[in-house]
Write a structure and sequence with these properties.
The complex is a heterodimer.
Chain A lengths: L2 H6 L1 H29 L21 H9 L2 H32 L5 H13 L2 H14 L18 H12 L3 H9 L4 H12 L1 H17 L2 H6 L8 H12 L7 H21 L1 H11 L3
Helix pairs in contact in A: 2-13, 3-13, 4-7, 4-10, 5-7, 8-9, 10-14, 12-13
Chain B lengths: L3 H21 L2 E2 L7 E2 L3 H8 L1 H35 L1 H12 L6 H11 L6 H8 L11 H12 L4 H12 L3 H9 L4 H29 L3 H7 L3 H7 L6 H10 L4 H29 L9
Antiparallel strand pairs in B: 1-2
Helix pairs in contact in B: 1-14, 2-14, 3-7, 3-8, 3-10, 3-13, 4-8, 5-11, 8-10, 9-10, 10-14, 13-14
The chains are: A mainly alpha, B mainly alpha.
Chain lengths: 283, 290
């Protein structure tokens, strides 16, 4: 916020407000179109794209999508996998981050460098061997591979939480040690409560990442009843978008159902998203 | 003891697989029979595979268009947010981030409709100005530009990072320059840009790495369905899409591993070059260098 510009006030500010409002319209309108089109009969899907309300109004598509696909099961699967992924990555990353932040041990810097190194490692490199591991464990075809890799911490969150814990004055921990607290006590009773904002950042980001994930469900899930929403939406678009008898309204309704819960989560955890992006650059 | 989970995870899910995929890349392996040593066959095949050339071409084309456009547009948005400041900036920032909360599959599906050549919203909008829009989703020449257009809907994180950096530029610097008679353009070039150059550098690297690994949106739009796959041909074949197909559709695990290692080396090389070149251009307050 540059003060000189501000004091100039008036015309410049109004111009920027208009430009930002125009940009906002461009960013928001695709959502409006999606919701409106999902509430129109098929013959009108593409009609009047700039009229921001459904005419004619036909909410039946939401009943149709419920009948065409196990949407409720997919929603529950997405939530269960997302919560498991987020909870496991948050706890394990905090555990490891505490280790890096509190203890001094030989090789610490080298091991911490390995954390930073894997942040650069493209997921594609480990795709095949990771599949072979889950295959050997007999867990392909289940939802376990979608989240269990998270039990060992994840580089981004370890980094974030370590930075956060380094900000805690050391005497806080030392005082508890003098009072006879074990290292696990330090972690549970001091580090975790103090790191709460950073824990929430890690949690909401991993929930989002899990909700976005298409590749792992494509690789590991065969049974449609086990699908998550993105995988389900992919199945729906493959079945209903093209071909002899397209059912666009079903595709669009499924798109809304896949997107809406996450938008709600975003509004609840908005503060943490913004802070998380600004500090870690996580997408 | 506390870092033990990381060490296990590092060994089992990072380093182990990395080495395993390097080893696998020298074999033929179809999951059914055990891996057969193949020497450098996979790499030789890769160098001659026209689909690899096409996938690299598409991915590079996309990255070269997407990354600069995304950064320039996000910077423009962030600068405007910075100028208006306060509560209003918070509201706009939220709006700009909303597309980034839309799962990539849903983004792909949504743009399949918006970019529809006959009746999509984008072409109906162009028609208002008398422009006849291209067949974004079926004309091989227009599929990649369409994907770039879609990708520019997703500027939220980049905008937030640049906006946060702009907020940290001390106002006194700009004021002092203004007293010295610097115009707004000079202040932008000489003060604002150098001050936020670490953030610019950072978004350059993360956007490049992400672009080279593009998968979800493209796969949702053009692959897995016979009809769309045929009509798009190889025009939407991105590198990671091809890798995925080789591994999990054709079960060429060895070949896919070779593809993965080439991608890894390319990303490492590009990041390294950006780091070296960027290190010279980036201004760190306090004089420390990365």
């Amino acid at each position: 916020m540059t003060a000189p510009e501000r004091s100039r006030g008036g015309a410049g500010r109004v111009f920027f407000l208009i430009m930002l409002a125009a940009a906002s319209t461009i960013f928001l309108y695709p959502f409006v179109w999606l919701v409106v089109a999902s509430l129109k009969p098929r013959a009108y899907t593409f009609a009047d794209p700039f009229v921001p309300w459904p005419d004619p109004f036909a909410p039946e598509s939401y009943v149709a999508v419920w009948q065409a696909a196990p949407m409720l099961a997919w929603l529950v699967n997405t939530l269960v996998v997302g919560l498991a992924a987020a909870a496991s990555v948050t706890l394990s990353s905090a555990f490891v981050a505490f280790g890096f932040a509190y203890f001094r041990f030989p090789g610490r810097n080298l091991i911490f460098a390995s954390v930073l190194g894997t942040m650069m490692l493209p997921a594609a490199v480990t795709l095949v061997p990771t599949y072979l591991i889950w295959n050997a464990a007999g867990l392909t075809g289940t939802q376990v591979p979608l989240w269990a890799g998270n039990l060992f911490g994840s580089a981004f969150y370890i980094f974030l939480l370590r930075q956060f814990l380094l900000g805690v004055p050391r005497y806080v921990f030392e005082a508890a040690r003098v009072d006879g607290a074990s290292y696990l006590d330090l972690f549970w009773r001091i580090a975790l409560p103090l790191a709460r904002p950073a824990l929430i950042i890690a949690f909401v980001f991993e929930l989002k990442a899990s909700w976005f994930d298409l590749m792992k469900p494509l690789i590991y899930l065969q049974d449609p009843m086990l699908y998550t929403l993105p995988r389900g939406l992919k199945a729906i678009v493959d079945q209903f978008y093209q071909g002899g008898d397209p059912k666009w309204e079903i595709v669009l309704a499924a798109g809304v159902i896949t997107t809406l819960p996450l938008i709600l989560i975003f509004f609840l955890g908005q503060r943490y998203f913004v802070r998380g992006i600004a500090t870690t650059g996580h997408r | 003891m506390f870092v033990l989970p990381w060490l296990i995870g590092l060994a089992v899910f990072q380093l182990g697989p990395m080495i395993a995929s390097l080893a696998l890349s020298f074999t033929r392996y179809d999951l059914i029979s055990s891996p057969v040593w193949a020497g450098t066959d996979n790499y030789a095949r890769l160098a001659q595979d026209p689909k690899v050339a096409r996938a690299i071409g598409n991915t590079v084309f996309y990255t070269v268009l997407h990354v600069p456009l995304a950064i320039v547009l996000a910077l423009a948005l962030a600068l405007m947010l910075d100028r208006i400041g306060g509560r209003g900036a918070g509201v706009f920032r939220t709006i700009f981030y909303l597309p980034s909360m839309t799962p990539y599959v849903a983004v792909g599906v949504l743009f399949l409709f918006l970019l529809n050549g006959q009746a999509g919203m984008v072409n109906q909008f162009l028609a208002l100005f008398g422009v006849e829009g291209p067949q974004w989703t079926t004309d091989p020449d227009w599929i990649l530009p369409g994907i770039v257009l879609m990708s520019l809907w997703n500027l939220g994180s980049t905008t937030i990072i640049l906006f946060a950096a702009l907020r940290n530029v001390p106002a006194e610097l700009s004021e002092a320059a203004m007293i010295d008679g610097a115009g707004s353009w000079a202040r932008f070039l000489r003060i604002t840009l150098p001050m936020i150059s670490p953030a610019l550098f950072f978004v350059l690297i993360i956007n490049t790495i992400a672009s080279l690994q593009m998968f979800d949106q493209v796969y949702a739009m053009f692959f897995g369905n016979q009809v769309t796959q045929q009509s798009s041909g190889d025009a939407a074949l991105f590198y990671v899409v091809y890798l995925f197909q080789q591994a999990f559709q054709f079960l060429h695990m060895g070949y896919a591993s070779a593809l993965a290692w080439v991608l890894f080396l390319v990303i490492a090389l590009i990041t390294f070059v950006q780091w070296r070149v960027g290190g010279r251009l980036v201004h760190y307050e306090g004089g420390e260098r990365a």
